[in-house]
Amino acid sequence: MSIVDGKYIKASFAAPYVAHVELSRMWTEYGEIFDKISRNPDVIVVVLSSSLPKLFTAGLDMNALDAFARFETEPARRALQLRSFILAFQNAISATERCPYPVIAAVHGGCIGLGIDIISACDIRYGSSDSSYSIKEVDVGLAADIGTLARIGKITGNHSLSVELALTARTFSAPEALALGLLSRVVDGGRDAVIRAAIDLAQEIAGKSPVAVVGTKRLMLHARDNTVQDNLEYTATWNGVMVQAPDMRDTMVGMKSKTKPQYAPLVTKRGAKL
C-alpha cells in the first residue's frame, strides 16, 4: 500500500509498520517525503533502497547544478546564495536522521558521492555483495559538503581509512565497507537479496515497543554528538517520561504468558499527527 509517491521517489508499506522508500532521482523531494513519513504514526521502521536495477545512486544529478546559472555574479551575493543552496541540500539529506523512526539503508551496485551522504545519515546500513562505494567529490573538484565528511568519522571505526577514502575517491568494496564500519552486514546477492534482508530486520524491530524503538534512536544520536555525562542526564529526563508508558508492562505480560506483546501505536487517535 502506498504511503506517499513523488515524481522520482515512492514510499509504500513492505510489511506492517515497515515503510519502504525507493529512490530514483531526487533530493528536495527526498527530504519532503521523509518529513511526511516522520509524521505517519503507522510507521515504526523505514527501509531505504534504490529503484534502479544496477546501482544505488551514481551521485549528484548534474542537472541540479543548473540553478547556479541563475545566481548573482557579484561574489558576496553569489556566496550567500550558494550557502543557502548547500544548507537546503544538507537539510534534505538529513531528513533520515531527524526522522524519529530508524532507517535501514539497503545498498546494491554502485553507491557513489551523494550516495555516501545519504547512507551516512541512516541508522543501519546493509550492502549487497555486489555493492561498491566511492566518496567521489574530490574527483570533481570539491570537498564533500552534504554530510559524508561530517558523519563518517563518527559512524566508522577507522579514521585513517576514512580520510584516505575521502582524499583519493577510490572505489572500495562491500567487504572493505564492512571492515570500515560503514556497513553492519554484507548480504550475498544483489538488489532483491539486500532489500529482503533489510525488510526482515525492519520487521524484527517493528515487533518491539514503538516507544522503546523511537527512544533508542533518539538517545543514540544524542550520545554520538554529546559527552557521556550530558547523554546520561538527557536519558534520565527522556526515560523519566517514557517509562510511564504501558509498554514495559505489556512486555512483562507477554513474557509471562509466552505470547507476543501487542503494543499500542504511537498515535491512538486516527487523524492525529506526531
From TrEMBL:
Pathway: Lipid metabolism; fatty acid beta-oxidation. GO terms for cellular component: mitochondrion. It comes from the Eukaryota. It holds the Pfam family ECH_1. GO terms for molecular function: delta(3,5)-delta(2,4)-dienoyl-CoA isomerase activity. Keywords: Fatty acid metabolism, Isomerase, Lipid metabolism. GO terms for biological process: fatty acid beta-oxidation. Belongs to the enoyl-CoA hydratase/isomerase family. This is ClpP/crotonase. It comes from Gloeophyllum trabeum (strain ATCC 11539 / FP-39264 / Madison 617).
